[in-house]
Amino acid sequence: MTSDKSKIQRLQDARLKRAKALADIDTRDPNVDPPPGAVIADQLELAHNNTYGRLPRFYVDKVVVCRQCGKEEVWPAERQKWWYEVTKGNINTGAVLCRTCRDKEKARKDEARRLHLQGLEKKHGNET
Ligand SMILES: [Zn+2]
After folding, report:
1. Which H/E stretch holds residue 14?
2. What is the domain partition of the chain in residue ranges?
3. Distance from the alpha carbon of residue 68 to the mean position of ligand 1, in angstroms
4. Which of 4, 78, 96, 98 is the most buried (most CB within 10 A)?
5. 96 and 66 Cβ atoms separated by less than 8 Å
6. How many angstroms separate the alpha carbon of residue 30 from the centre of ligand 1?
7. How far apart, in whole angstroms, are the C-alpha atoms of residue 25 and residue 33?
8. How far is the CA of 57 from the centre of ligand 1 (A)?
9. How far is ligand 1, taken at its centre, from the CA of residue 94, in Å?
10. Whole-angstrom distance, CA of residue 46 vs CA of residue 78
């Protein structure tokens, strides 16, 4: 491992530690001030959530335990904002896989689609 990599690893560890410290913060509580590093939520962009419950006022780094491999990883505040406000993810959903497993899952799906398309092409080829 190069020194560059271990530096990244150290930064990731520090971020994970910070995220754990923030785990108890209630991002929906109007009396809670956003901590340093928090990303402010845009309520208008969250309006697609058909909920009577309170929506988050800000996002903080969140610890995700991967459903597949059990690895702990930070789900960065800015990625959460993107997920909920840009891709309009439901507020009750969130990241469940670590980046490695997500990439693997994506590769698996891409491969399945490729094989499927290949199969369709073959079928088509036989018909003509
Ligand atoms: Zn994983």
Report:
1. helix 3-21
2. 3-97, 99-128
3. 5
4. 98
5. yes
6. 34
7. 10
8. 29
9. 14
10. 14
